[in-house]
Each structure stands twice: as C-alpha cells, then as structure tokens.
Amino acid sequence: MRYTAPLTLALAASVTAVDFSGSHDANSSVWSSVPNLPASASPSRLWNRPFKRQSGWNPPSNLANALKEVWDHCMSTYSNFWGFKNYGWDQIHATGGKINVCVRWESSTAVTEAQRAQVASVYAAQYQKWFSWLYGYDNFPYSKIDVNVVGWAVRDKSLLQGSTSGITVYTDKDADGIPQCSEACGRFFHQDGNYNSCPGGASAHYDHSLWLTDGFGGGAGGDWGQRIGREYFMGALGSSDVHILLHEMGHTFGLDDFYDWTPTGQTNFIMNAGSSTVITDFDGWMLRNWWNGLSRNRGWQ
Predict the structure, then answer these.
(1) Lower CB count within 10 Å: N or C terminus of the chain?
(2) What PANTHER family does the entry give (predicted)?
C-alpha cells in the first residue's frame, strides 16, 4: 500500500486518486509466472474459516508470527494509518453492508447484455471469496455483503448492446478523455455521504469503479476500486478465480503489497503478486487482522 503517492492513472480532473497498490502491480511481467505455478502454490484449504462465531484475535500458531510482521510493517509504513477514513471497511460500514459498482469501459468494443450480466456476477463472486473469511468472525456484523453493478461508463451508449434497464449509463469523461462514472454519484468524490448532486440521490450512488482498460497489462487498486485489463477480465469470465482482480480487491480493504519483502515462512499468497492464483489462509487472516484492529479503533464493536 502506497497511498501517500498520487495515482498516476488519473481518475478525474478534479481529484487525485488514492492508490493502495504499488506501482509494480501495473507491470504485466509481475503476473507472467502465474500460469506456470505448481498446484502447491495455489492452496485452497478452507479449514481456518469459522464454523461458529468467534471473537478476538486467534490466528493459527503457524501463521501468527508472520501476521504480526505484516501488521507491524503496515503500522510503520502507511501514512495516517488510523486517520484515513475511506478504506473499503469504512465504505461498507456507511452503506450497511453493500457495495455499489460502476464499470468504466475504456474500450471501443461493444459489450452485450449477457456479457454485462456475467461481468456483474463474476465481480461479485470474487468479492465473496474475500468476504467469506469475515462472515461469522469476530463480531463482523454482516452475513452477506451485497455487491451490485449499478452503472456503466462508455464512450458511446451504442457500445452497450441490448437492454440497459436497471443500470445508469454514463458518458462522462475524465481529464484524459477516458470514460468515467459521474463524480456527482461517486463515494470517492463524496466521502461525507452527501449525494445531493447525484440524480437519484444516495440510492443511485456507486462506491467502487471497476475500470477495464484495453491493453492494460497489470492492475491497480485503492479506495476508489480496481483497474485491470479489459481483455484479461473478459477472458477470465469463465474462471473461478480472477487472480489480478482478487489482488487489487485486497488493496481496496487496505492489504499491502510484498514486492520488497515477504513475511517469515510465507511465499505463495494472493497479495504477493504473481505467486498464487487464489486467496490463501494467510491472505484470509491478513484480512481478518484488519477487521480485528480497525473495527475496534473505529468503535464498531
């Protein structure tokens, strides 16, 4: 997480984006080894997830030291760790357990109604892979976080084939002429929750942008959402795990990158870019560590 540095890929003319991902994420070579990972580098164990409600911090002994290293590292390297108030955690707290998403379609390729439905379904499914680590854990107040695509931003409305019922279509552009969802309706631009300038008000707002860009070889992620390659994501719609997106979603909830160090005994996990295709036990417990610490700091439990 390097959120003191402005995101060089501007989100809009009037706001400098807060980028949780390291600049290395956008380097396609980081991800090039993923197709060749051995099966052992992509573990799918579920045994650490709770079967009943648990409270407090109780990681497995084989992960505890590495998790402490990560937490201490974040505490010492993040700028304004507790003071920053737009982590993904803050957003779902503000909405009562919902995430509204607007897709930025940075492409001249048409997209069918069926494809849009699949984009929404796959995106939500990736988030549920993270949230499944929280349901029932340490007084997490939600049993299901609803993730819905509520809008699409395109260069021309004709690119959206079929019915657009149920979504808002935007043709707004940022300073670089790239399609963007309306600033008036975006959480990033209205962190006070005031959406009076958004047509439709708060019920029509979006929390994250899923920014799909032609030819983009890596990823980026932060409080504003995630950016990945349009070809990569559309080609992965039949996959269970869209690993670059999973990594960038981790950044939205504050998880760090590991380009310059790795915690003791841990090498293959989704937040160590290019080393795993799935969320591992270590990733899941890092997410839980954030909930454990931030929820108490914020007074949510």
Answers:
(1) C
(2) CELLULOSE-BINDING FAMILY II PROTEIN
